[in-house]
Amino acid sequence: MKRGLAMVLAGVLTLAACGGDDDDGGSTSAATTGGSATPSDPVTTDPATTDTATTGSGTDSTGAPSTAPAADDVTTGGDLKIGLIAYPEQLDPLLIFSSYGRMVAASIYDTLLTIDESGELQPNLAESYSTTDDGTTWVLTLREGVTFQDGTPFDAAAVVAHAQRLMDPANECRCAGDIAGLVSAEATGPMEVTFTLAAPSGSFPALLAGEFGMVAAAASTPDAPIGAGPFAFGEARQDESITVTAWDGYWQEGMPYLDSIEYSIIPDVDTRIAALQSGDLDVFNSLPYARWPTISDDDSLQLIEYSGLGSVTVLLNMSAPPFDDIRARQAVVQALDLETLHETLNAGRTQSATSIFNRGTWAYPGEIESYPTYDLENAKQLVQELGGLSFTVLVPGPTYYEQAIAAQAMWAEAGIEVQVEQGDANAVVTQYREGNYQAAFTSYSGRIDPQVFASRYASTSSANYSKLNNPEMDALVAEADSTTDRTERAAIYKQIAELAAEELPFIIVSNLNDAFVARGDVQGIAASPDGVIRPAGVWLDR
Fold first, then answer.
1. Is residue 187 domain-shared with residue 316, that is, in the same domain?
2. Mean confidence (pLDDT) of the chain
């Protein structure tokens, strides 16, 4: 049987090479197919952002961001060209939710805290953060001498105004679910901000390294964003490109090294590779694993690998047929021979997972024995009990195209009829956010606190796209965030993973490993696990 599947997957690769890239993956009108699929591309992140402050009562984290190379060791100037799979939905921290939106925003806004290459929180615009109780109150001391790109001061008043704007329900922040427990943000000194929560939260500091920590100036607008980051907004051409230019008032002396960055929207992966090889692009990510050897074998290019903390999943909408029936969810999981898929399509660079908590995170619970494994005969039996099973799976762009049609072939082996519908990444994300779908491929980018993933199981979470509604799960998710002790939290996350294996709100295809692809003369890219290039220290050896 495995040999037969391998032959099917070999055919999948041939189809992908011959026709998968004819469509650019960016059409706003989805293409629906029965026996085959059109290309698909990566996906998104979402506002459920959290972080791993390993702080307990009375803990304090203080320090400076990691040092960049000395100015004498770098070449300054030059224009960097970065390829993105889709046009950012917004550049306002209020509304950013995708990985490509966060990529551009990272050039305009610095965050209050940042993360290093090992995935740990580090000071940034905030020099220190601490809690003196159980995690209900968090105090930030801000960095002196920082200004926004319009010359206005970065201080406690600015941070509070930013926080209150995002907290205002009328503004419908994408982060609303994450900050639902935030009661107040107060300036308790000219450069000190105190956040008070309704209940203890061990994950709160992580918000300060994500969208909530991207402090915008008072005069900032969605069309003309203003932050305290290394680059100022320049020009935007809808669905084509966004350009930012170096800001000479940036607080990190001598940085940024580049003159400008142009983010070009190129949905098709082979077009991105060709642009990289010709010099029309300098760097991009979201590279299908099957294409990694193309880069590794080219001496003019570099593959900067990192252990992403996220996962590739197939969301299952539990609020509507067919996946409101647990047997349907069990059948689609057990019909997938993921080991063969990883070896055949992903060159063995991925491996099956039994929980959404990545092997790279401190909350990894080990293998969950109760998670269903490949069992084609049982999948067929479940389909018979259901009287047949059919559904449509959404795929947002080329990166997961091959995996989607491979899964389609495997499901067919079990008698499951599947249509693969490909559309623009933003459009597909909107569909599953609104619950207008049956199944959908997606990836969750790496976030350094596991609560971001646990929150996807909570019935009250805006990120619960599968519509799971289980009071026991809700209680566990809340409990996991109620302490700053990692050991206690990890034990709870294991319980969450075990309960998720019973409910199966989505298929866990693999934990996420990823890479930036760059020309050989691009230097200073830090492979942080959230997949975002922080461009202040990037330079060109030309």
1. no
2. 86
Within-domain flag for 55? no
Instruction: Using the CB atoms, write b or e for 390-412: b if 16+ within 10 Å.
Output: ebebbbbbbbbbbbbbbbbbbbe
Contact 230, 247 (CB under 8 A): yes
Domain membership of residue 187 as a residue range: 110-221
3-state helix, strand, coil in the chain (%, to 5): 30, 20, 50
Residue 349 and residue 317 share a domain: yes
Last residue of a domain, one of 189, 221, 253: 221
φ/ψ (deg, to 5) at 212: -65, -30
CATH number at residue 363: 3.10.105.10
User: Does residue 135 share a domain with residue 283?
Assistant: no
Instruction: From residue 308, give the alpha-carbon distance in Å to each of 110, 279, 509.
Output: 21, 27, 14
Distances in whole angstroms, Cα of residue 128 to Cα of each of 122, 142, 266:
9, 7, 39
On the question of pLDDT at 344 being above 90, the answer is: no
Other C-beta atoms lying within 10 Å of the C-beta of residue 14: 11
* pTM for this model (two decimals): 0.75
What's the CATH number where 541 sits? Answer: 3.40.190.10
Domain count, the chain: 3
Are the beta carbons of 466 and 482 closer than 8 angstroms? no
pLDDT at 362: 87
Task: Give dist(CA 528, CA 531) in Å, integer.
Answer: 6
Question: Of the spans 49-53, 132-136, 367-371, 446-450, which averages the highest pLDDT?
Answer: 367-371
Three-state DSSP at 306 gives strand
Q: What is the pLDDT of residues 91-131, one digit of tens each?
A: 999 988 788 899 999 999 999 999 887 778 999 999 999 99
* 103 falls within a domain: no
Distance CA 119, CA 307 (A): 10
Q: How far is CA 137 from CA 111, 112, 134, 196, 497, in A?
A: 20, 16, 8, 5, 29
- The predicted pLDDT at position 4 comes to 52
Tell whether the model's pLDDT for residue 474 goes beyond 60: yes
- Which residue did the predictor score with more confidence, 192 or 64? 192
Instruction: Judge whether residue 35 has pLDDT over 60.
Output: no
- Asked whether residue 104 is domain-assigned, the answer is no
Residue 363 CB-density burial (10 A; 0-12 exposed, 13-18 middle, 19+ buried): buried
3-class SS of residue 128: strand
The predicted model gives 458-465 an average pLDDT of 90
How does residue 61 score in pLDDT terms, banded at 50, 70 and 90? Answer: low
Question: Based on the domain organization, do 265 and 175 belong to the same domain?
Answer: no
Element (H, E) at 418: strand 416-422
| Helix, coil or strand: residue 503 | helix
- 66 in any annotated domain: no
